[in-house]
Amino acid sequence: MPLDLDRTLHGTAPAKLNLYLEIVGKRADGYHELVSIMQTLDLADALSARLVRRAPGEPRVSVVLSGPQATPEIPTDARNLAVAAALAVLERAQVAPDIGIALTLEKHIPAAGGLGGGSSDAASALQLSNRLLDDTLTDTQLHEIAASLGSDINVFLVGGTVLALGRGERVRAVTPPGDFEATLMLPPFGARTPEVYAALNATPLPPDWSERAADARGDEIARRVAHADSDALVALFRNDLEHAARHVDTRLGNLLAAPRRRLCGSGSTLIQLGALDADTPRTCESKPIRFLAVRSRKR
Length: 299
What we know:
By secondary structure, this protein is of the alpha+beta class.
């Protein structure tokens, strides 16, 4: 079947919140073994994709950035996960080399904030690219590509409330908590994720750890998340990266003082469930802190 070069497809790429993030240990391959429950939010990037005829010497996949969170630091070559994802689909599907994909990406998720924006963009690019090719690749193949590109991308192929195991590539949907509203706090500085993981200084993975043990631990946490209200989620919340992130950037300490305020992933975004406290800081080092109201998002 000939490919339709006139069709443009549109999709969204939601942010995520780690409701629970346990680092079990560091694996022999250098990755960290985790047990995590992630929840997608209504804050989302917008992505569009269309097939194009590629001229000699042009990149096979291009992306045009726009939106309030588009910054010069976001790459537009294959270092951008959305570009890498679209390129991987073309190669895996063995599409003729003169056919490429043009992406447009409207950024609403802050970069380097621990909200998974780049990974979510990649997942959306995988799905849109495959749809442009009339779903040539199976879901299993898309998940294989996602796992090869990054640790969180598989989560966004599922969406909603997701249990993530392994290094984040073993995923499945679980029963969501009750709907909740929260406020994101966006400090005037980004995260230094590699430094946070280095400061984590995780112990080696226990020798008796297995997929069966991971599944059992994941099932236990998923049962506690199911139908939980905001108070129960606050009590359950765990982020094993938080202490290391505080060590890497001491500015986070004051910002995390409130009991209902927690770090998103490796930071630097913070989230607070429920209403903000009256003494919530509005500035950091004389620079304004931005606030965004968000809600949990179903699949």
